[in-house]
Amino acid sequence: MPSYHQEPVALNPAFRESSDIDIIADEKHKLATTPPSPHISEDGLTDLDKSTLSHRLKTFRKSFKYLHDLTEKQVDDFMASYVIYNLDWADEKQMIAALGPDYKEKVGECLKAYYGVLNHLCALGDVEKMYIPPLMSKKATVLENQLMYERAIAREIRIQPGDKVLDLGCGRGRVAAHMATISESQVTGINIDPNQIGQAIAFNKEKGLDNKFVVQDFNSLPLPFADHQFDAFYQIQALSLCKDLKALFKEIYRVVRPGARVSLLDWVSLPAYDPNNAEHVELMGRVKPLIGAVGTPTPEILEEALEEAGFVVVKSENASVGGLQAPLIDKVDIYFRAVRQLILAGVKLRMLPYHFKTLINRLCLDGEAFVKMDKMRLISTSYWVVARKPEA
Ligand SMILES: C[S@@+](CC[C@H](N)C(=O)[O-])C[C@H]1O[C@@H](n2cnc3c(N)ncnc32)[C@H](O)[C@@H]1O
Asked: Is the CB of 236 within 6 Å of ligand 1?
């Protein structure tokens, strides 16, 4: 049996048979009672930390080398790609004015230039999986919170051993590896960025996992899959990059079997956000580029698009304890600020090429605006919607 971070566990059959309300209650109880770090040894590291530490060092070195060897064009394209985060799918006129009539393709090019570099920048920190998870436990690290949340997804979409699962915007295939391991399923990941797909294939192969990874832009439909091919579906923080949510959800509806469950974790603007409030608008203008969001859906937009595709929404809530992600955003922000200081010193001493300064300065911009918006409950990147496709 392949191993990845934690031992494979079959999902609790009692959990699978519970009603939706029981599942939510059970999940909340588990979150409240799960000790975040069950085995803390004398050196203060958890078993989980120890199993991932050597892997983390290896990844850090690889990504550092990749960033070191970036060409001038790659750096320029990365910086130029930020143009898309000042736009919004909802304002097509503005999109066309900035990018031209073939703006969908232009956005795709920017996404590749952006993620091709960003995934390596993220790998320098504790966000090799490029998402800040819902806050499940304040005492746990970002990675532990990710692992806890991914287990919650597996339970919620009721993955069974042998199931085929689709992961949209699959990053470097780390979530897919964890998911396949804990549930003994096979995950297919899609991603617009060949660089991440290459890493996902290598990583999953190294772990002995039979997961599949395909380069595919989810704004280019149809998806290359047969009807009813998958038993379950999840995506983590990729939907703001989708031009047409309704069309995408219709495609997902087509490729999952009747009775399948789907899980979306994403960035949303919340009811307290007021587009006529100058402070809110200014904060939004800083946070969208920081988190790399093009669209700004609301929970209602996600729900309506799912329902129009034929799904039945069974859960729609902020998955962070108390509805706030700020403690985790702070952790990531503080870490990257420390990395930034080291990088700036390295550049000053001419030990690192200058482009490291350009990249890290861009990455570290506006972390505090993200924390502020989260605390004001204007936005969240931990909004969780679960839906099911009715039985035929
Ligand atoms: C913010 S990251 C989300 C974290 C990611 N799910 C993970 O596991 O690391 C967004 C992911 O979606 C991918 N992506 C962005 N736009 C896409 C598109 N149009 N089609 C397919 N994948 C896309 C990115 O390359 C990136 O891997």
From this structure: yes
In a domain, 288, yes or no: yes
Instruction: Confirm if 108 and 217 have CB atoms less than 8 A apart.
Output: yes
The whole domain housing 304 covers: 13-31+46-388
Ligand 1: nearest atom to the Cα of 292: 1
Instruction: Calculate how far, in angstroms, residue 191's C-alpha sits from the geometric centre of ligand 1.
Output: 6
- Does 36 reside within a domain? no
**What spacing in Å lies between the alpha carbon of 213 and ligand 1's midpoint?**
13
Q: What is the pTM of this model?
A: 0.87
CATH of the domain at 134: 3.40.50.150
- Residue 14 has a pLDDT of 32
DSSP, residue by residue, 224-258: SS-TT-EEEEEEES-GGG-S-HHHHHHHHHHHEEE
Query: Looking at the domain assignment, is residue 5 inside a domain?
Result: no
**Within-domain flag for 197:** yes
Each residue of 8-51: pLDDT tens digit?
A: 333 333 333 333 323 333 433 443 333 333 333 343 334 444 45
Whether residue 63 has its Cβ less than 6 Å from ligand 1:
no
Q: How far apart, in whole angstroms, are the C-alpha atoms of residue 47 and residue 41?
A: 8
pLDDT at 295 over 80: yes
Q: Is the CB–ligand 1 distance for residue 187 below 6 Å?
A: no
CB 245 within 8 A of CB 40: no
CB 253 less than 6 A from any atom of ligand 1? no
Q: How many domains does the chain have?
A: 1
| Dist CA 104 CA 368 (whole Å) | 31
Distance CA 320, CA 196 (A): 27
